[in-house]
Design goal:
The chain is α/β, with parallel strands linked by helices. The chain is about 35% helix and about 25% strand. The structure holds 5'-deoxyadenosine (5AD) and iron/sulfur cluster.
C-alpha cells in the first residue's frame, strides 16, 4: 500500500505530515512517487488565509480522479481547514473518505480501518483528547537528513484578532521536557545536526508546566551531538531578557530569529491585540542585538488590517527601515470567519492592500540587496544539507542559503566558507578548510 501526502501551511503542519508519515510507515505503507499511484491520499490543510482554503478544494477536485483507476483508494483531509470546517467540508466535498482533527492524528490507523470497511471516518474533536501525547510515540519520517523539526508545543493562548489558529489548534499545551529531549536524542543518533524547535508561539513554551523557555534551550544544547538550534515562531511579548541571554550564551543557538511584528503602527497593534507597541518591539530587537552578536531577523507583516491608514502603513515601512530584516513574509489581511477582526468596521479595499503591498516589497527589495552585498568577502559557517548541480548547499548560522564548490563528502558537516558573491536569495562561497 502506498500513500501520498500534500501539505499546506506552516512548518508545524509540515512537521505534522512528517509524523503522519511515521504512523503510515508503522502500518506498512510506503510513499508513492505521485498521487496517481497512491492507495491513500492525505491533504494536510491550512486555513490561515482564504487562498489556502480554496487550494484544498481544487486539489480535491483533481485527486478524486484516483477513484476511477483505483476504486478502493482513500482520500483523507486533516489539519486546520478540516478542524475549522468540520462536517461542512465533507458536504462541500463528498469525495472525502476520512477526516480528522489537529488533535487526533494518532488515531489515523483506526480511521483508515473504518474507511477501508466502507464507513466514512470522520473524527473532528472539539477538544484535544486525553491521550493526544500518543502522537509522540511515532518517529517522524523526514526528507532532510541533517536538520529536523521538533514540535514542542501545540496550540496558542494568544488572541490576535485576525488569527484563526487558537480555534484550529486549541489552547496552549507544552510538550514535556523529557519527551522533547528523548526525540532530540533519537534524532541525533539518526545523524541530525540541527534541531529546529517548533510551536505556534514557541517562546511561551513551558508557561503551562512551570518551566521557562530558555531552560529548554539549555537542555537541548546539552544533548551530545546537537550542533545547531533554531526555534520558530517567537512572540515578541514572550521574548524575555533571559531568552536573549541564553541565545547569546549557548554556542549552538544560531544568530537568527523570526519575530513577527505584523504591523508598525501601535494603534493597529492594539487592534490586533498583539500586546506590544512599535517602540516595545524595537526595544526587543535592540535587546537581542545586545546579547546575540551578529543576530539577523526575519518577520511577518499583515498589510491592510481593518482601519489601516496611509500613516499607519508608513509606520510599518519605518520598522522595516529600522530593523532591516533579512526576510519579510508579507500578507494582505484576509478576514477569517469567527475572528474578531472579521466584523471590524473599516475593512480595507483589495486594491489599496495590493498597492501598499507592492510598496512594501519594493522597499524590502532594496534593503535586502544592501544586506546581501554586505555578506561579500565575509567568513561564514555553513551546515551542508544537500548537493545539487555540482555544488554543496546549506545555510549560514544567520539563515542565508549558500552554495559551495567542493569535493569529497561534506554532507552533514559544518564548514567554514568565504562568501565570493552574494545575491538577495543565494550566495556563492569558497571552502576555507
Ligand atoms: N490575514 C493575513 N495574514 C494572516 N496571518 C495570520 N492570520 C492572517 C490573516 N487573517 C499571517 C501572520 C502570521 C502568519 C503565519 O500569517 O502574519 O504571522
Ligand atoms: Fe495554517 Fe496556521 Fe494551521 Fe499552520 S497553524 S497550518 S499556518 S492555519
Amino acid at each position: 500500500m502506498k500513500y501520498y501526502i500534500k501539505t499546506f501551511g506552516c512548518q508545524m503542519n509540515f512537521n505534522d505530515s512528517e509524523r503522519l508519515r511515521g504512523i503510515l510507515h508503522s502500518m506498512g505503507y510506503q510513499p508513492a512517487q505521485n498521487w496517481e499511484d497512491a492507495d491513500l491520499i492525505l491533504i494536510n490543510t491550512c486555513t490561515i488565509r482564504e487562498k489556502p482554503d480554496q487550494k484544498v478544494y481544487s486539489h480535491l477536485g483533481e485527486y478524486k480522479k484516483i477513484k476511477e483507476k483505483n476504486p478502493k483508494a482513500l482520500i483523507g483531509v486533516c489539519g486546520c481547514l478540516a478542524q475549522r470546517m468540520g462536517e461542512e467540508l465533507v458536504q462541500k466535498a463528498p469525495v472525502v473518505d476520512l477526516m480528522f482533527s489537529s488533535f487526533n492524528m494518532h488515531q489515523l490507523p483506526e480511521l483508515i480501518q473504518q474507511a477501508q470497511a466502507g464507513y466514512r471516518a470522520i473524527a473532528i474533536l472539539e477538544e484535544p483528547p486525553e491521550d493526544e501525547d500518543r502522537l509522540w510515540d511515532f518517529p517522524t519520517i523526514r526528507d532532510n537528513q541533517f536538520c529536523a523539526y521538533v514540535t514542542v508545543m501545540k496550540g496558542c493562548d494568544k488572541n490576535c484578532t485576525y488569527c484563526v489558529v487558537p480555534k484550529t489548534r486549541g489552547r496552549q499545551r507544552s510538550r514535556s521536557l523529557e519527551s522533547i529531549l528523548s526525540e532530540v536524542r533519537a534524532l541525533v543518533e539518526d545523524g541530525v545536526k540541527e534541531i529546529h524547535l517548533l510551536g505556534q508561539n514557541v517562546t511561551a513554551w513551558g508557561q503551562d508546566i512551570g518551566i521557562p523557555f530558555e531552560e529548554l534551550l539549555y537542555r537541548v544544547a546539552q544533548v551530545q551531538g546537537v550542533e545547531r538550534i533554531r526555534f520558530t515562531t517567537g512572540h515578541p511579548k514572550d521574548l524575555t531578557e533571559n531568552i536573549a541571554k541564553a541565545m547569546g550564551e549557548i554556542p549552538q543557538v544560531c544568530e537568527h530569529i523570526h519575530l513577527p511584528v505584523q504591523a508598525g503602527s501601535s494603534r493597529i497593534l492594539k487592534l490586533m491585540d498583539r500586546g506590544y507597541t512599535k517602540e516595545e518591539y524595537l526595544e526587543k530587537i535592540e535587546m537581542l542585538k545586545s546579547y546575540v552578536k551578529g543576530i539577523t531577523f526575519s518577520t511577518d507583516i499583515i498589510v491592510g488590517f481593518p482601519t489601516e491608514t496611509e500613516e499607519d502603513f508608513e509606520e510599518t515601512l519605518d520598522v522595516l527601515k529600522k530593523v532591516r530584516f533579512e526576510q519579510v513574509f508579507s500578507f494582505k489581511y484576509s478576514p477569517r470567519p469567527d475572528t474578531p477582526a472579521y466584523s471590524m468596521d473599516g475593512q480595507i479595499p483589495d486594491d489599496v492592500k495590493t498597492k501598499r503591498m507592492s510598496r512594501l516589497l519594493e522597499l524590502q527589495k532594496s534593503i535586502l540587496s544592501d544586506i546581501a552585498s554586505s555578506y561579500e568577502n565575509t567568513q561564514q559557517e555553513v551546515l551542508i544539507e544537500g548537493y545539487e548541480n555540482g555544488k554543496f548547499i546549506g545555510r549560514t548560522r544567520t539563515n542565508r542559503w549558500a552554495s559551495i564548490k567542493g569535493q569529497g563528502n561534506l554532507l552533514g558537516r559544518v564548514v567554514k566558507v568565504k562568501v565570493i558573491s552574494s545575491k538577495p536569495y543565494s550566495m556563492d562561497c569558497e571552502l576555507l578548510e
